[in-house]
């Protein structure tokens, strides 16, 4: 029996070590991939801010370019009108020159001869000079206006070229950043796919390990039942009388031996260990008492409810509702209490128990050593 127990303990130790190494091997790659995904998300966010800035500048340059185009169109239209006006002014000057050539204006003597009074003389001289100044002013104004429009159009064309070049540069920058974001998003999708693959592999390995643990726990339960049955048979068998030796003198009566201490009654609920193993990996939920989530006493209550035993959802009440046993008599299905009755678990044999530790963890196997051994309050058996 001692060899078998040692073998089982060794097997369980190997299984737990394998599970721990599997979890340790699987978790860091997932954590690293998640950290990598977070870094990529940060880069995408940064690129998004840069892209928004470039897009806004590009929109501004497009609006400014549209305004320049409008001004350029109006200036070009005005320049066409100025050209027409200048042609008309030049035509009038040409006609005036032709008339002057064909019919020269009257000289001073002629003006004096044709004037009947001083007033007529002044009017005639002013009229001749007025026509000449007016024609020259019209032509000069037309030339100046045309020159101004030409300069304005040149400046507008230069501004348009500069703004068009800047808008093109911003469009190129926008395309480059957008392509960078698309590439980062593709990388992010690939990382998420890798994470999903790793999680699926880890889950499959955890299921495999859980199945191994359940089979091992089932073997322990069967062994515990066999030991309990053997103990019952041994206690029920009558003592075998041995005949006294054939001697002439009667042998002295043997000294009475003290009666052995009554052993703890065998566990009637060893299968509680097998049932508890079904919920390995279920997340801890404060106040939880279902496969959607357990706390420590909720797990015990739910497991034993499936065996027809109603236990309260409270560690102290569960302690009071069960029978004390020495830790040396622990069998699968017994309860172990810790931390001033602040925590409870289900013993599965081999110095291990199943429990729901605390928020952020899952139902798992722990060893009655180290911290748990130092904080063990005692063991109880459900009758």
Describe this structure in words.
It is a single chain. With 383 residues, this protein is an alpha+beta fold. It is built from 7 helices and 8 strands, in the order ααααββααβββββαβ. It has a 6-stranded antiparallel β-sheet with strand order 3-8-4-5-6-7. A two-stranded antiparallel ribbon has the order 1-2. The two termini are 25 Å apart. 66% of the residues lie in helices and 8% in strands.
Topology:
Blueprint: H1 2-102, H2 108-114, H3 118-236, H4 271-277, E1 289-290, E2 293-294, H5 296-305, H6 315-320, E3 323-325, E4 335-338, E5 343-349, E6 352-355, E7 364-367, H7 371-374, E8 376-381
Helix pairs in contact: 1-3, 3-4
In whole angstroms, how far apart are the ends?
25 Å
* CATH architecture assignment of the largest domain: Orthogonal Bundle
Strand content: 5-15%
What's the count of strands? 8
